[in-house]
Amino acid sequence: MTDLGDFGDFDAGSDGDSDATDAVAADVGDTASAASSASDSTGTNGESNTAFESTPVEPRGEDVGIGTLCVSQGLRIAEDEDDTSLRAYVTQDNRSSIRIGSYLLAPYPDGETLFCRITGLEYAQQYHADDATEIHARRAMRTDEVDEADYKFVATLEPVAVLYDDDGELKRRMTDRVPKPQTVIRTADDIEAIKTGLKMPEDGVFLGHLSVGGEKVRTAASPPTIDYRLKDDYASGDPLVFRHTLIAGGTGSGKTHGAKNILRQYLAAERTYPMADGREVGTAVVQFDPQDEYAQMHDDNPDLDSEFARRLEREGIAYGGHEDTTAFIPKVGSATYSAGHHRAKQVEFTIPFSMVYENPWLVAGSGLNDNQYGALVSVLLPRFRKQYGNGGTYEEFTTFLDDPALREELDESGRVHEATFDAVRRRVLGFGHVFDQDARPITELVHDFVRPGGLTVVPTYHINDTRATEAIVLAVSSLLIDQKLSNDPIYDRIKETPLVLGMDEAHNFLTDADSVQAGKVIRKFTEAAKQGRKERLGLFLITQDPQDIHDAVFKQINTTIVLNLGDEDAIKSVNIPSNLESKVPYMEKGQMVVYSPDNSEPVELIGLPKCLTRHGRD
C-alpha cells in the first residue's frame, strides 16, 4: 500500500521515462517561452515596462504640526510638577528644528488649547538592539548620516497654561486638564497665543524681543518678532517702574547699553502718570553715574540708521537723544570734570553741611558704634546747630570739635566720655573737600534737578576719593527719598513729580556692612522700596555684584533683568528659575533673562542690537 498517488505506479523499465522526459522538456519549453516573453517585456536597459502598484509607506495627505502626544510612558497632568508626565513623539522632518525652551500648542477637542514648553529632548531606540558594539561604531564611522527611522525622538513638555476663548478674548488659566492621546502638537507661532500663554502684556515699556536659546521667536506676523513689555499703567495694578527694577550683568554683558534703552522709554514724551491732583506728569529720571556714560543720552546715536529707526517706529519704541538731559557735576576739592564725550548741559553743585543735621551718618567716614553715633546725633550736632544755626559749615564744625573746653565739659558732665568724643572727632575729619565747596548747594537747585520728563545725571567718575563719592551719592539720594516719603515736604517739586532713581554700581552703596551709618542707609532705601509705588518713586538699580546688595532692599525688587554673569554666587543671588539660571553664564552680549512675577512668566529675551542714544566713547 502506498499513499504517494501516481508515483506508486512508477516502473523504471517502462516507456513512462520517455514520457516524463517529454513532459520535463515541455515544462522547460514553457519556462523558456515564459522567460522569452518576460524578456520581451523588459527594455534593453533592464527596465521593466510593466507598472507594478507599490504599497505607500507614507500616509496620504499633508502633515500638520511637528508630532503627537504619546502615552507609552504616561500622559498625566498633576498638581505636583514631579508627577506630571507629558511627552510627544516628534516626526523625522521636524527634529532638527526643535529646541529646548520652544513653545508648543496642543489643542483639546472642545476648542481650548494647552500651551506648553519643551524641557527635554531625547532619542530612544525604535527597535531593541545593542549599538554599543564595534560593528555598529565602524558602520556609523563609514556613513555620512544617521538613519532617523531607526530611532524615536521624544520631547518632554512642561504645561504652562490652558488657553480659552472668553467672548472673543483669548485668556489663560492654570493647567487643569489632560490632553487626549495622539493629540497633534504644533509650534506656537501666533503672537496672541504666545503672549497670553506667557502672561505678557500688550503695552508698556519695551525691554527686548522674546527668544529661546539665543534665537528670537518667530511668528507669521509682521514684524515676526514678539516684543516684551513691562506693565506701565494702573489698569491692572501699579506700574512696575514704581515697584523697582534690578539689572545685573558682568563686565561686557551689555547692562549699560540695556539700561540706557530702558530709561529712554521712561523719558518718552507720551509716558506720563496721574498724580493725586489729577495732573498727568512725565517721569523725572535721576541717574547716579560712576563711569560717566549716561550723559551721552542727550545725543543721537550716529550708528542708528533710517531703516532701523523705521523698525523702531513700527514697534512704538522711543529712540534718539533726549534733549532735556543735564549733567549735575558734584564739586569736590580740586577735581575737574571733562565732558568731551557728550553735549549735555552741565551744572556744578555742592553738598551743604546743613544736610548733615537730618542725615548725621554723612560725616561718619568709617564705622561708629552705638555710643559714638549717639554722641554725634544727640549731643554734638544739636549743640553745634544751636551755636551756629542752619548755616553752619563743615569747617566751623571741625573747629567746634577742636575746642578742648567743650571736650572737658562734656566729659565732666557725663554726657560724652572723652574717649568717645575723640573717636567721633577722628571719624568726621576728612570731608573738607566734600561739603560747602565753591558751587551752588544742591538744596537751591532742586527745581532744576528734578524735572518732569527730564534726565538728570550725576557723574562721579572724576572723583578719586571713595568716601567722597559715597557721601555725595547718599546725600543726594537721601534728599530725594526723604522728600518723596515725607508728609510735610520742604520741596514740593520732588513730592509732586514721578521719579525714577537710578543707581549704577548699586552694590557699593546698598551693601550689608557692620556699621551704624550703613544700617541707616539700608533702612532708608528699604523704606523707599516699600512705599515707592504709593509715592510714585521707582528704584532702578544696576550692578555686577547682585549678591552684595542688602537682602532687605533686594526683597522689594519686582523686576529682575539678568544678563551674562560668570560668578556662581551672583547667579544664585538673583533668584531666577533653575532652567533659566543654567543659561546665564553662556548668554551672549544683549541676551537677558527677565523675572517679573507680576508681569509674565520668566522668559529669555534679546535686547536691541543698537543703543537708542549715543553709547561708547570714540
TrEMBL record:
Residues 1-64 are annotated as: Disordered. The keyword Transport does not apply. The keyword DNA damage does not apply. Residues 21-44 have a biased composition (Low complexity). GO terms for molecular function: ATP binding. Keywords: ATP-binding, Nucleotide-binding. Residues 1-20 have a biased composition (Acidic residues). Residues 239-459 form the Helicase HerA central domain. SUPFAM superfamilies: P-loop containing nucleoside triphosphate hydrolases. This is ATP-binding protein. It comes from Natronorubrum bangense.
